[in-house]
Structure formats: structure tokens, C-alpha cells
Amino acid sequence: MAADIIPIVNQPIYQETSVVSQVVDDTLLYTLKTLIKKYKKRMGDTDDFCVVSGGLQQFINKQEKKMSVGDQNKRGLNVNDLPVNVKIKIFSYLDAIQLCRISRVCKEWYDLTSDNILWSEILERDIRSWNVISHRTNPGLYKEVESEWSNKEIYLHCSPTTNHLMHEENALFRSFTSMIRSFLPKKTPKIAMFGPGLESGTLKIVPLIINNTDMLKTVGVAPGEFTGVGAGFYLKIPSGQVFQLAILYSASSKVRKTRRKRLENNSLVELVSKDGEQVVELKPAVRACCCAMDAFIYVVDSTKGNRFEQEDYDELMAVVNERWSAPHVPVLIMSCTPTNQQQRIPCVDVIKMLNLSSFNRPWQVQDVNVDTLTGVIPSIQWLIEQSQRR
């Protein structure tokens, strides 16, 4: 039996005379060679006659080697490998909210995003787009007094966007304090509106405010108390607060069309000689009216290209003179444009033109579009709140 098996074992398995076996074996050999080539190509091996062993470990090692040597295009640029000045330049393209968010990534980014020069550039870039600036949020004031605050602190304190976010976070506390204040007795504030904006391209703001029942509801008529000066309307804002609005025109429409200068035939102010100099002061009846007012609204036409005259500034200073208007009485500057499409003078430039930084009373500059009355309600809300803080 054993003798029969030995010849069978010794016989060659591969018979060249078998055509079918030849085709099958050639196909398998070709497939094997192809797999080896693909494996070596994947491993990065250029030797066609060498088969590497330990495939998985060597594959990992070679991939790590490629990444460490310089194949960084596949993984992307690492920001941490950049120079400091380049990182700050990249951060300068972000807005304030984004900078505050990425400052929490790591300590290095916190230090870089707190760079004083970086925030100075961002402040200079963004301030011209701010739609509201007040006596407390005027960055120029902090620079004039050489405040110890950093530019980042000044920006976050003054920016309308960050202020709005902080108010939203403190909404519950503000609603509670507002409820407490609502129990305190308070009178209806009297507000006087005047300014060159009532007699120029933005003069439609008065009839729009009075007749816009969706935003301001007229609840009564207020007669003039001082020889007809101070007549106006009782208006209610959406929050339910009522205020008295008196419109002070410098002259009738007929006189305004014929006069050349604002102080000429002016119903509010007059030129008075004092110590050999001509000064602008209120007329007695208007002075008595201003003494009874709790707040003022000064309307200006801030359409780009419009100029603020010295006479406009003199009229403003005469009305808010502290001799007949207490220092706590606030002033709201409505910086108006007739429509949304027209370019406007930025609030920061209005502050400079009217020299509001020298005012000794609360003030605010608010962008207002006359056609939509955008900005009117929040500015009046601020004015009412300020007038009730004695």
C-alpha cells in the first residue's frame, strides 16, 4: 500500500501539458503580482523586487514620517506654527464677538486676542458703523482722560452690539428692577424737540412721529403754558410710558423760506451784547419753557455732504444752557436721514461737529431713518429713563 502512494506523491503537481491549469495559474500569478505592486506603492516603496514585512506597522511609520517631513499640504496649515505678527494679522479680520470666542481656545490665543494695538485698529474700523453713542459709551472720552482701561475693555463697554448682548443676558434682572421702579411715583416727562433737522430735508419726522399709530400713540394734546410756547402732544410708546412732546420751531415755514441765516428772525434765540461781544441766548418766553422741560431732542440732518453751521451749534448751546436747564436734564441727538438709501454722517463725526464731549449732562447720538422711524423708539426710551434719574 505504501509503495502505491509514493509514486503518486513524487509526481509533479503542475503539468505543463494541461492548458486549463496553465491559464488558471497564470491568472493567479498575475493577480498576486498586481497586489504586491499595489501594496508596495501604498507603502511608498520604489523597489519592485522587495517585499516588506510587518505591513501595518511599517505603513503607520511611513505615514508619520511623511507628515513630519513636510507633506503638510494634505493636513492643512497649523496656525500655531505661524509667527506672532502673522497670527495677529489673521485675528484682525475677525469681529469683536469672534475674537472673544476664540480667546477661550488657549492661553496663547487669549493673550494674542487681547493685544492693545489689535483692538485699537478694530475700534477705529468699527466705530464709524455704530448707530448709537452716548456720554457713557463715547470711546473718545476714555482716551481724553487717559483711562487705565485697555482698548479691548473700551470697545466692549462702548460697542452697541456688545451692550445689546449684555442687556439680553441681564434681561431678567432688568425686568425685575423695571417692575420695582414702576411702583415709584413719577410724573410724565416733558420733552422739547428742536433743531435744524426740523426745517430741512428731514422735516417730515414730526408728522410721521405724531401720526404713526403703530409706534407712537397720541393720547392727548398739551397746551402751551408760556405765551403759546411749549404746546405739543401726549404720546405713548409700546412699553406703555407716556411723555409730553413739545415742538420748538425756530420760525414759521414762510419765514424759513426767505431768511438767509438761521439766527435771522429766529423765534427761539436772539443775539445779545455782553461785554462788547455778541452772544446767542434764548428769548424770555422760550427760556421759561426750557426751565420746565425734563429732556431735549435735537434733530439734525446727517445726510452725507450736509454741513453743520456754527449757528446750529450756538442754538443748541443756548437751549441747554445750565443757567435754565439743570445739568441732569439729558439731550438726545437724532441724527436723521430722509431714507435708508442715503449715506449718512457717522455718529462719531456728529459728536465732533457738535463738540458733545464738552457737555456736562447726559447725551446720546442715535441714527434715525425718517421714512421708517428706525431708532426713534429706543432713543426715546433712553431719554425717558435718563429724565427720571434725578
Polypeptide structure, described:
The chain is of the alpha/beta class. It is built from 17 helices and ten strands. The strands form two sheets. It has an eight-stranded mixed beta sheet with strand order 1-10-9-8-2-5-4-3, sandwiched between helices. Residues about 1-20 and about 45-55 have low confidence and may be disordered.
Distinctive features:
390 residues; alpha/beta; two-stranded antiparallel sheet; 17 helices
List the helices and strands and how they pair.
Elements (H helix, E strand, L loop, with lengths): L1 H9 L8 H25 L11 H15 L14 H8 L4 H7 L4 H6 L3 H11 L5 E3 L4 H6 L6 H8 L1 H10 L1 H12 L7 E5 L10 H7 L5 E6 L9 E5 L5 E6 L5 H6 L10 E6 L2 E6 L1 H8 L3 E7 L8 H10 L11 E7 L9 H8 L8 E7 L6 H12 L3
Parallel strand pairs: 2-5, 2-8, 8-9, 9-10
Antiparallel strand pairs: 1-10, 3-4, 4-5, 6-7
Structural class by helix and strand composition: alpha/beta
- Roughly what percent helix? 40-55%
The residue-averaged pLDDT reads 79
Nearest-angstrom radius of gyration? 39 Å
How would you write the strand order of the largest sheet? 1-10-9-8-2-5-4-3
**Overall 3D geometry?**
elongated
Q: Major sheet: size, sense and barrel closure?
A: 8 strands, mixed
SSE run? HHHHHHHEHHHHEHEEEHEEHEHEHEH
Termini separation: 124 Å
- Beta strands, count: 10
